[in-house]
Amino acid sequence: MSDLIRIYGKSLTTIFLGLTALWIVALIVVPQLRMIERAFVVDRYSDEAARVGVEINRSYTRVFTIDQELDRAAAGPTAPTAPSPFSPSPSSAKPSTPSAFATPSASSGGAVSTDPDRTATLKAEKAELQARIAELEVREKEVKAGGTGYALGNFTSMSAIHAKIFLSTLMYALCVTILAFLACYPVAYAVATSRSSERVALLMLGLVIPYAINELLRIFSWIMILEKHGVLNRLLDSLGLIDLAAGEGMRFVASNGAVFAVMVYAYILFMVFPIYNTIETLDRNQIEAARDLGASTWRIHWRVVLPHAKPGIAVGAVMTFMLSAGSIAAPEIVGRGLHPDWFSQVIYQRFFESNNWNQGSAYALVLLVACVVFVLGVMGLFKVGIRDIAK
Amino acid sequence: MTAETATPAAAVPAARPSSGRDWSDAILNVYLAVFFAYLFLPLLLMVAAAFNASPTPSATDWQGFTLEWFRQLPRDQRFVQGLGHSLLIATGVIVLAIPLGLSGALILTRLRSRSTTTLYTILVSPILTPGIVLGVTTMIFWRDTFGVEAGLFTATVAQATFIASYCMLMFMARLQRQDRVLEEAALDLGASPVLVFRRITLPFLMPTILTAAFISFLQSIENYNTTFFAIGSSWTLVTEIGSRMRFGLSPMVNAIGVLFVVLTVIAALIWAAARRRELARLAAG
Amino acid sequence: MRGNDVVLSDVSMRFGDFTAVHPTDLTVREGEFFSILGPSGCGKTTILRMISGFLDPSSGGIAIGGVPMAGLGPNRRPTALIFQNLALFPLMTVWENVAFGLEARGVPIVERKRRASELLSLVALDDQGHKKPTELSGGQRQRVAVARALAVEPAVLLLDEPLSALDLKLRQHMRAELKDIQRRTGVTFIYITHDQGEALTMSDRIAVMNQGRVQQVGTGDEIYDRPATPFVATFVGEQNVFQGRVTATNDGQAVVDTAVGPLRGTSQGTLSIGDEALLFVRPERVSLMNGATASPDNRIDAEVERRDLEGSFVNLHLRAGNHPISVHLTNAGSGRDVVSGGQRVSFQADDAVVMRAGEFARE
């Protein structure tokens, strides 16, 4: 610290410390803590609140129809007033829209009698309903005031389907990672040990271009292959295996297999560069020496090249796994919104469709923890430190 | 390839050519060809479809060459506005990420204490965090704490969170190569700390600042996963492309794709040239 | 005390458990070429960094021209430091480098350019101002560093082994040049080095340091002829060393009973009979007893083992019993004769130093 002050002085040092603190607090740590906090916040009475809310709405709707009937009875055979699509209920912000109830009862109001007994009954019912509404509204306030508390409900209430999606997402991500490693290791090795610099430059260019092209476009280019009228089906058609004209195209998109295939394509190159970077630092004489000592190709890789490439493999594995497990682009685009079987999509739904941010936070936290566990696991397995991982 | 390996192998006695090696080289070359075909064929299909008159993007059902899809692009308001949003966010990200990353890098490289590993772990953690989690946390934090709804601002902040980490790593690599004596020498000659920073540290870092700004810009423009969550009801060029891809395909998406590919190839060629020069410089010096 | 003396009072430096500099008093006089000589790790660079303000002493205080330096950063002290690797700013031109200190003081650019070209001609680098430091040769870069440091008109110029990166020829040339610049400018130079040749040729006075302690301060001749400790005796120049007990003392001289017989030398410090003592004599002060040139004081019979021709002198390796003796002869007169077999050598008591046993300098 005194070093920093000696060189940059108090004011600049304060600025550097301040900016770093801002980054840590406002961008990294506190947002994470807010998410974690939300993950453990449960609306204890949310079920009851919803039930009460629905009943209040229903009662208001009934009162509304009674009023209409009474109006008609008073006005005689005049034309029925058009029913408002909106309920007069103060609880109209509730997800259950009152118009769903209002419409059928309003139409049934067409065949109404002007029976005075009927009028009395209706009035009695209305009074009863209004009393009930007052009671319910008090209860609703209580429930809402009773509010929220910290609990594990957001996690324990995860449905079996969501849990299954979570596990299969991790499995797929793991498979993407392993497949990417198997596919990329020979490539990284070939580039890193290539003797001609022109060849290295060309190969690197060939890797960098697809790597740098936008993720969405890499995904999209595969949709063109997998689509119903895409390249793959046409290929099968021309081989006579299927008849596209007869509508026999296979539905490749919107399946987990398609998402998986696309992910492999989209994220495979995140494995190449880290491995290449480590193999490149390997003294090539070591390979020659091992060969000279009579080691087989397998043994050279197993004993010399792979151990040296460990940090690179670790980086590649972490990046590939993290991108695959957390990808929203691939499942959304390949799935066309039809097949929400990826955990990232479940999280999205919690936030933006169910509007349940607390449970969404819980799910996001579960995903984050899975990734942290994976990073720690990789660090343990490859015996590398955090400074080797993030370079 | 065989010619290339044979010449040095003859020159270096330790590298005895053997039939086994030729075989493995041949297999490796075939594999490389397959791998690169796998990488490039889908992209070529996508590019081809951008010039196909067929109203659904297709590379196989050829209905004639057209530039119509390119002509439609500037007329599409959502694309144009999305591009505007993307540029706005990217500018914001650069403005945020460079100072943050630089501060973190200076502190980490100039502090000699052991506690820096913890600090380092915290500062690189955004890189290792799934993008959607960053989007979610930023969205929650700003709404819950300040009542700021998700939008362009939260998207900027969410992106800056992890792009600053990349900037920091670049600055650290550069700072580790700096001779710290230069700063001491300037101080010894009577320079104030601010002058030392302005005349010695900043000029030394300038190439990295430009590179970091360029990379931040690209990362920001291209980002989907984080932005998708943090952008709320607004949109960027890339999230718009994403939603077009999901709901009804149009060759306009391919046309944008071609533009992206062309820009990427140009950037990659510049990168390759810069790398060659760097290697040549290293070899010379 | 004169105008701009540098005074270290009881200055020490500790890094955790390690004491880099033990409490030290030292005064460097204004206008002096003062060297601090010692092996690496002896604390000399630490002293330099404390004077320049990059380190705060753990105890004691430093004053320059009577002004205490405590709490002043390196940019507020009347010192300028020439770094071991020179630390020229690679992104600035030579003249910008030289004028940087003036820039820091807000001197207008016209004046800066004028001063820079003045200084560049002082160090014989006219017309090189527009180049980048990397385009200059090692010796030229050296001179740019000197000019840059002098530009701020420091009371004290601190030099941290600035010649160590140069090759031998250039190093010898630069010694003369630095000494010359110092004489012309009259600026106090404090010069850090592990090279005794540099220290002896350039310095008005030298402080020899070992393990965080100043062993001796004196002129080159004093250090060479009257070393205060066994370390100084063996670190500076070559020595023949004889070990034994003191058998007699009188008149500032002492007799030591050594393996080659009793030898007489000048006592350094107080010695009493029976003390374990060391007698040092330089190889060039030992002569062969052929003819009348022999000294009568100390005579040793020895066998010539080897004759090494070093150029301007001849190095004779002799052996008296088991004890090696080294004799340097100028390559003229008797030195040119190839001698062999038994020889009697001698040296004067004035040329030998006797002191209490202690630590030697490691080779």
Q: Give the name of the CATH superfamily of the domain at 79-237 in chain B.
A: MetI-like
What is the distance, rounded to the nearest whole angstrom, between the alpha carbons of the first and last residues of chain B? 30 Å
Q: If you average the pLDDT of chain B, what whole number results? A: 84
How big a fraction of the residues of chain B is strand? under 5%
Q: Give the biggest sheet of chain B.
A: none
Largest sheet of chain A: 2 strands, antiparallel
- Number of helices, where a helix is a run of at least 4 consecutive DSSP H or I residues of chain B: 12
Output the structural class of chain B. mainly alpha
Pick out its properties.
heterotrimer; A: 391 residues; mainly alpha; MetI-like fold; two-stranded antiparallel ribbon; 17 helices; 2 strands; extended; B: 285 residues; 12 helices; globular; disordered N terminus
Would you kindly provide a written description of the structure presented here, covering whatever features stand out?
The complex is a heterotrimer of chains A (391), B (285) and C (363). Chain A has helices spanning 2-39, 46-75, 99-108, 116-146, 153-156, 160-192, 197-212, 215-226, 231-238, 256-267, 269-280, 284-292, 297-325, 329-335, 343-352, 357-382, 386-389; strands at residues 41-43, 148-150. With 391 residues, chain A is an all-alpha fold. Chain A has a domain at 158-390: Orthogonal Bundle (MetI-like fold). In chain A, helix 8 crosses helix 10 (256-267). Chain B is mostly helical. In chain B, 78% of the residues lie in helices and 0% in strands. In chain C, a hairpin with a 2-residue loop joins strand 17 and strand 18. In chain C, 42% of the residues are buried. Classes of the chains: A mainly alpha (391), B mainly alpha (285), C alpha+beta (363). Chains B and C meet through helix 8 and helix 9 of B and strand 6, helix 3 and helix 5 of C.
